[in-house]
Amino acid sequence: LTGSASWYLLTLVTEVFGVRGDLGNLLLMPKLCQEQFDADGKATLHTLFAERRIKVCYRNPEKLDAGEYMVENVLSNGQKLIYTKVDGGVKISRFKLARLPEGVEHCLEVVLVKK
User: Fold this and answer.
1) Backbone Cα Rg of the chain
2) What is the pTM of this model?
3) What DSSP state is assigned to residue 35?
4) I need a surface site. Which of 47, 85, 90, 103 has the fewest CB within 10 A?
């Protein structure tokens, strides 16, 4: 990463969308502003993690601003995913993600609610 555009994208993914690794696990700690969600209260990011294609879709039905919400639930392809709550977000085990089938994009739906 040498250019300012690369640093901007890295910051957007890791700090604003809050999608990053933590000792091999996936950490989701969003800091999205109300304006960054669409009219339906969704904000989506496509990425790779644990050699799996992942679509992280944050749902903010109450249209809350950063700092006003917390993660209530995480669904993987429509099924509740086991995670650990951490300060401001959740941690998902790399082991769980690595067990997902390869070659397809997996949807992680993250439901945000008022703190």
Assistant:
1) 14
2) 0.91
3) G
4) 103
